[in-house]
Amino acid sequence: MTEQTNQEFVGQDREPMLQLNAPVPDFEAKTTHGVLRLSEWNPDKWVILFSHPADFTPVCTTEFIAFEGLADELAKRDVALLGNSIDSVHSHIAWVRNIKENFDVDISFPIIADLTQEVSRKFGMVHEASSDTAAIRAVYVIDPDRVLRAMIYYPLDVGRNFDEILRLVDALQASDKHGVATPADWRPGDRVIVPPPKTAMEAEARVNDPEYEVVDWYFAKKQI
Asked: pTM of the entire structure?
């Protein structure tokens, strides 16, 4: 294969190896909001596709409440949420109603019913060393072109860090908009890292440019 895509397969089990900056696999699936196809769903938006091990479990419940708590902030960034687990639509509906009853939280985003494991297997959410009947806690950040920009995996017994998920979206969008990189622990308002100069003349000009905070010719920051 000469074209890099996220449809490549590895190993004897034929499960996909997702790659950053490659297109994600498309799928059509039943959800709590009806049938959707990823390539056609919210076509102008970023998507956070995430998996959880099972409905009616305590850690997953806290995570769904946390995702819903981020929903408005993500919407401001043109990001849509899409959940997934190896449970039925009826289980999802009952669990969402239970969350409303017990925690007074309305889950506004769709949840995929992946009983066949089609979506979970396509995205590498099933790690059989952990479980062959439940998905791990995976997070995929997908841009409007349906290209995979970031992915985070958490084990079954550790809940996610939601501050980091929002920070990651902010960093990706800032990098795209301004053509920069973001340093460790970057948050909106912090200085960003500019690409290193390509010539000796550019390096000399940068050292003397008041726009930049220059540590060395290859390491400079600026405000955006």
From this structure: 0.90
Instruction: Check 38, 47, 48, 60 and give the catalytic one.
Output: 60
- Tally the residues of the chain: 224
Nearest to 20 by CA among 120, 149, 121: 149
pLDDT in tens, 163-176: 999 999 999 999 99
pLDDT digits (tens, 9 = 90+) for 46-97: 999 999 999 999 999 999 999 999 999 999 999 999 999 999 999 999 999 9
Q: Is 175 exposed, middle or buried (0-12, 13-18, 19+ CB in 10 A)?
A: middle
Annotated active-site residue 163? The verdict is: no
**What is the H or E stretch that residue 59 is in?**
helix 58-76
Domain that includes residue 184, residue range: 179-224
189 with 116, same domain: the answer is no
Spatial separation of the C-alpha atoms in residues 150 and 78, rounded to whole Å: 16
Among 106, 51, 118, 115, CA closest to 83: 51
Domain count of the fold of the chain: 2
- Strands 79-85 and 46-51, how do they pair? parallel
148 and 184 in a single domain? The answer is no
